[in-house]
Amino acid sequence: MAVKICGLTRAEQAVAIAQMGVSALGFICVPSSPRYIPPPAIAAITQQLPETVLTVAVVANPTLEALDSLIHRSNIKAVQLHGHESPAFCQQVQQHYPHVQIIKALRVKSKDTLESIPHYIPYVTRLLLDAYHPQQLGGTGTPFDWRLLQHLSIACPWWLAGGITPENCRQAIAQTHPHGIDLSSGVEVSPGIKDLGRVAALLKALGVDANPTPHS
Ligand SMILES: O=C(O)c1ccccc1N[C@@H]1O[C@H](COP(=O)(O)O)[C@@H](O)[C@H]1O
């Protein structure tokens, strides 16, 4: 089970959370977010992380030029497209950056959202199914109706997001069977500041072992 903790803004927290055994760390590059962190600050953090951690830049409706600048300045391994990006745009990103993993987030409003999934599959590394909120792109702290995923077979790796917490993570996984989970506000003290005790509680609930020590 992959575990991504998103919305990091502090190097010491990113390093500590990586050492706790998470698979991926996310950095919000959407300027309107209270968790926004600029690309040079991301680069300063990612260079301190173990190679094994997937570093993810979260963007919304970027141009290819903006993505180019972000990828070169932030030293990340994956982009999370969290806006209204089309399958054709994902294909362009894939062609331009074959070495960068593509995570396409779909904000699940109804069953109709899920009908677009097959169109994205050829162009993404994995999908992320997050909650829909009319005013917020992400980091809402609200789960969507997981029953919408019942009887749905998704033919590519996918992660579940939206309101996951240490308390509900096991139920979320049991009900939806994702390949990974992604949390932000459920393990936070305040936007961008993580609660390491809650991250530890999450990993304990999931039975994830801390990394061995080479990076400590
Ligand atoms: O966290 C944000 O501020 C944010 C802003 C813009 C796009 C995505 C954002 N966060 C993503 O939201 C989900 C889940 O968050 P939560 O656990 O419900 O708080 C996660 O994928 C973040 O990458």
Automatic annotation (TrEMBL):
Domain N-(5'phosphoribosyl) anthranilate isomerase (PRAI): 3-204
Species the sequence originates in: Parathermosynechococcus lividus PCC 6715
Gene name in the database record: trpF
Annotated catalysed reactions: N-(5-phospho-beta-D-ribosyl)anthranilate = 1-(2-carboxyphenylamino)-1-deoxy-D-ribulose 5-phosphate
Pfam families: PRAI (PF00697)
SUPFAM superfamilies on file: Ribulose-phoshate binding barrel
Gene Ontology molecular function: any one: phosphoribosylanthranilate isomerase activity
Protein name as catalogued: N-(5'-phosphoribosyl)anthranilate isomerase
Protein keywords: Amino-acid biosynthesis, Aromatic amino acid biosynthesis, Isomerase, Tryptophan biosynthesis
EC number: 5.3.1.24
Segments forming a coiled coil: none
Metabolic or biological pathway, per its Swiss-Prot or TrEMBL entry: Amino-acid biosynthesis; L-tryptophan biosynthesis; L-tryptophan from chorismate: step 3/5
Keyword Amino-acid biosynthesis: yes
Domain of life from the UniProt record: Bacteria
Protein family (similarity comment): Belongs to the TrpF family.
Record has Lipid biosynthesis as a keyword: no
CDD domains membership: PRAI
One GO BP annotation of this record: L-tryptophan biosynthetic process
